[in-house]
Amino acid sequence: MESNLNPATEARETPIAELRDASKHYGAVVAAQGLNLSIRRGEFLSFLGPSGCGKTTALRMLAGFESPTSGDVLLDGQRVNDVPPHQRPVNMVFQHYALFPHLTVAQNIAYGLRQRRPRPVEAEISRAVEQALETVRLPGFGPRRIWEMSGGQQQRVALARAIVNQPKILLLDEPMAALDKKLRRDMQIELQSLQRSLGITFILVTHDQEEALSMSDRICIMRGGRIVQVGSPRDLYDRPASRYVADFVGKSNFFPGQIASSAAGRTTLAAAGGLMIAGTAPVEIAAGRTATASLRPEQIALHRRAEGLPVTVVNRIFLGEHTEYLVRHTNLGEFLVLVSRQAEAAEGGFEPGDPAHASWPEGAALILADD
Ligand SMILES: Nc1ncnc2c1ncn2[C@@H]1O[C@H](COP(=O)(O)OP(=O)(O)O)[C@@H](O)[C@H]1O
Ligand SMILES: [Mg+2]
Known about the structure:
The chain is an alpha+beta fold. It is 26% helix and 34% strand. The chain folds into 2 domains: 7-238, Rossmann fold (3-Layer(aba) Sandwich); 251-369, CATH 2.40.50.100.
């Protein structure tokens, strides 16, 4: 992509990719609506959301397989709405890797290079293919047939086929969806180290929150074709702007109610039975409105001394470093408490049926708008 800017200035300041009020409609179907997003050079960004929320559509607009119905797509500061995929400095890895089954691994990887005009010489192609195979830790696998490769290996061939083109951006659409859990975890670690060593921008689509949380510099949460929040994994976990985000990122307990008061950064929610829950509201909500208090299970302590809410232990699940308790409060109903091994050693364990008390530190509760 040509640019008139001084390369040094460009590298520092121009986002590598941008969506500006980008929408995509298919007849009456709104696949994406008013997307605004600025992607930084070299970052690992994930689109996260449930199936059908518009993640693939956003990615396809960046790749050039779809042009926006309205709004703009920019790559490296240039408007590319009408630039076809092969003329964009991006490569996409699909959910179903779409490798050519009748070609060898090397031929699959070399495919894009052979389409180039002028076509690189064979020695150069072989060198690039072997280097790509080394990058994805499949050295020497070039002569193999695709059907001789396992699922995880095919996934890496698909990656090699994309990185051999040295794209500025690698777009990955649920590339690990077809892999089993163990292999997925390995691939996630490999993808992350690959991104660091190549230094290129990765944009990943996933509906798996753990995957997004563990791999991304920033996560863009989508819902119903819209972006609802963008932030680092920690931002989204600690300061979700809505119940939807709190629910999507990590586990949380939700207590519905009505705003009783809101002043000086402190909001009080009247929950079931008039129980008052004080907390912080990331987005201010007016008194009288319905809202939800969100409390992460690990922020709640369970103890014998009569402090906090009286509860009854309903269930206990041993999780190694933690024990997950399901407890019941007369007004709030059932909620989860995650107790660390250390805390449990100090307090002693609880059995189903045991009475206990649950408390949490000042400010642990988030008061969120219903959406
Ligand atoms: N080519 C298309 N024609 C009609 N509707 C589409 C098309 N592509 C996507 N959609 C619809 O747009 C919405 C978003 O789809 P998509 O971006 O694939 O979601 P995701 O990747 O988050 O699962 C869905 O309702 C989907 O059915
Ligand atoms: Mg999709």
